[in-house]
């Protein structure tokens, strides 16, 4: 793995946030791929958020930190879920632009540059660059679940998004932190970012199979929680008025 351009002293422009729970064997290969995608292009840091893993994930991260000064490790004492992990990572991020990806290897870091560049080019208007998976590498059953969930979600929320559950995303840190928080939020970012009045840029990304380990979610997690979250996001959108354009008035006339 080559050394990064930035070191802990310089403030990175970009933070890569990776939520993980029990992904020990996937840590090192994924970090090598992130470095290969970003080295020489951006001053960046990588923040792994270990959500109460019970395997060797924390030890693997600690060992790598010795060699990679741009790698940071944030730990939840107990597992609080993927959304909470992403949020903790974004809160710790020093970059104004944050990009996220899953820690199991299903998201190829080679797509990070396109997502980051889309946010840089988009300026204030664009709130989110969202990966859209093509050629899903999940089981047939999970692909069907995902297709139904995406169709129902898009039908109800009208967020114009084909695939809102892809872990590959980039956004401005301040935009993400202004969103209403709930467990499950990471699957609804397009709708929530549109709700704030921002545009979304889509980037097609090739999906991959998990490098190793097992999925953290079962069928019922996705179904019941998905229905509840959909109702919640629908309500949030219904209860939104215009986004205020705020400025402080300092002149006396
Ligand atoms: N922090 C945290 N990460 C999680 C949790 N569940 C899943 N993840 C991570 O989120 C990513 C996607 O989860 P995964 O289990 O692969 O879900 P799937 O691809 O939808 O089957 C992986 O990097 C997981 O390690 C969790 O409860 N907490
Ligand atoms: Mg996965």
From TrEMBL:
Pfam families: Glycos_transf_2. PANTHER family: UNDECAPRENYL-PHOSPHATE 4-DEOXY-4-FORMAMIDO-L-ARABINOSE TRANSFERASE, UNDECAPRENYL-PHOSPHATE 4-DEOXY-4-FORMAMIDO-L-ARABINOSE TRANSFERASE-RELATED. InterPro entries: Glyco_trans_2-like, Glycosyltransferase_2, Nucleotide-diphossugar_trans. SUPFAM superfamilies: Nucleotide-diphospho-sugar transferases. Gene3D superfamilies: Spore Coat Polysaccharide Biosynthesis Protein SpsA, Chain A (3.90.550.10). This is Dolichol-phosphate mannosyltransferase. CDD domains: DPM_DPG-synthase_like. GO terms for molecular function: undecaprenyl-phosphate 4-deoxy-4-formamido-L-arabinose transferase activity. Keywords: Cell membrane, Glycosyltransferase, Lipopolysaccharide biosynthesis, Membrane, Transferase, Transmembrane, Transmembrane helix. It comes from Rhodopseudomonas faecalis. Residues 15-176 form the Glycosyltransferase 2-like domain. GO terms for biological process: lipopolysaccharide biosynthetic process. It comes from the Bacteria.
